[in-house]
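stage 2 :: seqdesign
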């Protein structure tokens, strides 16, 4: 988001920059003119979305492009259930845009504030062993390249580039259109239950493989996994949404209002954190409901935090989580934010965290007023022992050399970047670190 003084800050307040100039193009042609203008001025150019990345992936020291006016549906292929969207379209707008066509996204993450181009560029994902991240739903896109030209990538044109461009870190150009493979609208039946952590870790395969979408939270210091199991059902199935009062109590009052207060209190008095966590893992669970898919996938998050997430071979999740538990106990840390565990199927995208392997995701968080560095770096050491791949939009310390060892196609992506952007028009310090200058 851009403040009145022209300083851009991300949501987590981990990154800020004052660009040389800010432009708000209202058409694809305007984006092309902005890129050509930046080139003439010798400036780099970056598009920013919602600013929900914790890393500096969207930082734009030169020309910052806000694509808030580049939103909406371009076209709908009813026969193949495909929808083409302008790049600045927000995920929370998609249900409204897809509803008239009886369509929905096949899977979503638990936050829907992002733009579609930002979500695919950072590898945003949800959970479900048979489902990939949002980028795996991309069947085509159009981007403005460093020379200001429009490059279309889909099954008919430049198809060999799609596995790179569908998750391209913003390094190949400005994404102005995205075509998604959608599915018929559906209902999700949600069951949220607290279960013994050791039981869940001991039988994790059965929980993950036995559900369409399974995930769990664990509050450090407790022995409970707050499980969330979502089962897909036809749109014709009668919905049983949460009563308005229960939804307000759970999702607004407890998960955001009271949680904000307890996090702030825990930052001042860490000794209270274990007791608060023990209460939270009971209050944040134990409910059943069903609703339109997007209303179950996404949740409202207003408590500001910092996050690091790594993708691991799915089979390694139990041992890694136990190592994190030992780490927290050995250091006597009081961690008020839960650890989140999710899953995704393998895919063939060059820079996907699930590229070539069935993956489990472990995300650690800290309240934004607490120092996250020691905790995150210690957890990252554990992730490194298991060939963990960091989420591109979440905090990590990896560089081009370490990432090249984790991604077989990293070198191919860098070569494509050299071809499409030899002068590094779309680069910034973060991309120089993870891809090479």
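stage 2 :: out
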């Amino acid at each position: 988001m851009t403040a009145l003084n022209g300083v851009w800050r991300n949501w987590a307040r981990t990154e800020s920059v004052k660009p040389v100039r800010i432009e708000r193009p209202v058409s694809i042609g305007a984006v092309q003119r902005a890129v050509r203008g930046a080139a003439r001025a010798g400036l780099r150019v970056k598009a920013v979305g919602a600013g929900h990345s914790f890393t500096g992936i969207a930082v734009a020291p030169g020309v910052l492009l806000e694509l808030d006016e580049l939103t909406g549906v371009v076209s709908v292929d009813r026969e193949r259930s495909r929808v083409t969207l302008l790049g600045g379209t927000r995920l929370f707008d998609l249900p409204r845009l897809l509803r008239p066509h009886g369509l929905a996204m096949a899977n979503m993450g638990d936050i829907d504030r992002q733009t579609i181009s930002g979500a695919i560029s950072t590898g945003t994902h949800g959970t479900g062993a048979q489902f990939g991240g949002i980028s795996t739903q991309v069947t085509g896109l159009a981007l403005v390249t460093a020379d200001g030209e429009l490059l279309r990538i889909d099954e008919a044109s430049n198809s060999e580039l799609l596995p790179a461009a569908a998750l391209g870190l913003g390094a190949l150009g400005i994404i102005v259109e995205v075509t998604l493979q959608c599915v018929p609208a559906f209902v999700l039946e949600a069951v949220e239950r607290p279960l013994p952590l050791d039981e869940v870790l001991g039988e994790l395969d059965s929980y993950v493989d036995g559900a369409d979408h399974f995930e769990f939270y664990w509050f450090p210091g407790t022995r409970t996994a707050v499980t969330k199991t979502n089962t897909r059902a036809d749109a014709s199935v009668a919905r049983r949404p949460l009563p308005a009062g229960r939804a307000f109590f759970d999702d607004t009052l407890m998960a955001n209002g009271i949680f904000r207060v307890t996090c702030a209190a825990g930052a001042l008095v860490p000794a209270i954190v274990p007791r608060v966590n023990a209460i939270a893992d009971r209050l944040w669970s134990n409910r059943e409901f069903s609703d339109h898919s997007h209303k179950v996938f996404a949740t409202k998050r207003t408590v500001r935090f910092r996050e690091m997430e790594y993708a691991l071979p799915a089979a390694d999740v139990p041992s890694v989580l136990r190592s994190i538990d030992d780490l927290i106990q050995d250091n006597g840390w009081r961690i008020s934010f839960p650890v989140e565990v999710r899953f995704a199927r393998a895919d063939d995208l060059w820079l996907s965290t699930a590229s070539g392997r069935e993956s489990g995701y472990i995300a650690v968080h800290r309240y934004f007023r607490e120092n996250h560095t020691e905790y995150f770096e210690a957890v990252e050491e554990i992730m490194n022992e298991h060939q963990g791949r960091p989420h591109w939009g979440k905090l990590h310390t990896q560089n081009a050399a370490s990432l090249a060892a984790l991604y077989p196609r990293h070198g191919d992506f860098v070569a494509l970047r050299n071809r499409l952007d030899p002068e590094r028009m779309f680069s910034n310090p973060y991309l120089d670190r993870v891809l090479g200058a």
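stage 3 :: structure notes
- The chain has a mean pLDDT of 92.
- The radius of gyration is 21 Å.
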